Structure formats: structure tokens, C-alpha cells
Amino acid sequence: MSAHVPDPDPRNTTRPQGGVPPGETPPGESSTGSGAGPYRPLTRGWGKGPLVLICLVALACALFFLAYAIMLNV
Fold this sequence. Notes:
By secondary structure, the chain is mainly alpha-helical. Helices cover about 35% and strands about 0% of the residues. The protein has one helix and no strands.
């Protein structure tokens, strides 16, 4: 009876389990595209409405904390 001795030659591509030799396995997602559709560059930046709304909310928060700090010192 002889024990199974692994082949020390890495070029040997025969596998008893039927596996694929190292270096010949294809990459996992190489055949899929990188995007979901055609590239469309942005035409403009932020809209004026959301930008004004964010500025107003930030100003209201700053005024609230300023008033709160003044009321603590009174």
C-alpha cells in the first residue's frame, strides 16, 4: 500500500479532485460591465433651492445656539 504523495512539480495540472490549477482560474467579475448605463456628465452643480434651504437651516441653528448661550449668561 502506498500513501498519496503530492507532486512537488507545480506545473503538473492534473488534480485528483478535478480542480483547476492555480493561475488558470478566471477573475470573478471580469466579464461584467463597470457601469449600469452610458456615462452622462453632470451639467450643473447644486440647484439654488436646496442650497438656500440648507443655508437658512444652518443660520437658524446658529441663531438658536447664540440665543441659548446669551440666555445662559443672563
